[in-house]
Each structure stands twice: as structure tokens, then as C-alpha cells.
Amino acid sequence: MKKILFLLALFSAPAFLKAGNIHEVKYEYQADVKVKVVEYEYQADLLVYVTDYEYQSQGKDQNWFFVKYEYQADTKVFFVDYDYQADIKIFYVKYEYQAKWNKQTKFTGRFKKQK
User: Fold this and answer.
1) pLDDT, tens digit, 9 for 90 and up, residues 78-91
2) Which residues are bridge partners to 12 per DSSP?
3) pTM value?
4) For residues 98 and 109, what is the distance between their CA atoms, to the nearest angstrom?
5) Is beta strand 46-50 parallel, antiparallel or unpaired with respect to 100-101?
6) Which of 68, 65, 69 is closest to 112 using CA atoms?
7) 1 - beta bridge partners?
8) Is 110 helix (H, G, I), strand (E, B) or coil?
9) Which of 29, 41, 47, 111 is the one with CA 20 to 30 A from 103?
10) What is the Cα–Cα distance from 60 to 13, expressed in whole angstroms?
């Protein structure tokens, strides 16, 4: 039974994601992805660079641009407190060239909702 539940959770996760505009939601049920910000780079699945302009984030999982309104977002995220709650763990980097996938996950290359 546990295996079946695990497989259901794995395959029901948003398989239709790809980066770009990110909106932080207030409640977990509103999110496409649950995210945990980790303290150290080696702990992260994804090293994220927050861009200053929207065009810099288009088509790149590792570059995020935070938008003010939900309707502007490609992906809605909810930040969790614990690793076990997260779909993906991220670490914010200072420079764009540092941003990349650190570990392969089910979200690699798919971190933006397709329209």
C-alpha cells in the first residue's frame, strides 16, 4: 500500500512545469510546487538566481523572476519549513553563472506551467 501511495504522489506531482515568472502563494494547496530554501549549496536540487527583469528568466529553470500577482505567474510556489515537505530544495546564488541544476529531480527541465 505504501508503494502505491508513493507512486501516486510521484506521478501526480506537476509534470507540466518550466521556469519563468514565479509567484509565492499564501497556502500550500494553491501551489504548483512546494519549495524549501536550504542553507548550503550542496543540499540544493536547484541553484536559483533571482533576476531583475522578467525577460531574463524566460525558458530557464534556474532563473526566477518574482511577480506580484498570481495571474502573471508561470509557476506558483509555496515555501515550506522542512525538507520532507518540499518537492524541491533550492539555494539562492549571487551571480547568474552560478545558477544550475545541482541534482536531477522529477522537475529537472520542467519548472514552468505550459499554457
Assistant:
1) 999 999 999 999 99
2) none
3) 0.74
4) 17
5) antiparallel
6) 65
7) none
8) coil
9) 29
10) 20
Question: What does residue 31 show for φ and ψ, rounded to 5 degrees?
Answer: -85, 150
pLDDT digits (tens, 9 = 90+) for 21-45: 999 999 999 999 999 999 999 999 9
- The C-alpha atoms of residue 15 and residue 1 are separated, in whole angstroms, by 23
Q: Cα 68 to the chain's mean position, in Å?
A: 17
Cell of 14: 506537476
**Cα torsion for 91, 94, 100, 102, to the nearest 10°?**
-40
Q: Specify the DSSP element, H or E, that contains 76.
A: strand 75-79
Give me 29's grid cell.
494547496
CA separation for the pair 105, 102 (Å, rounded): 9
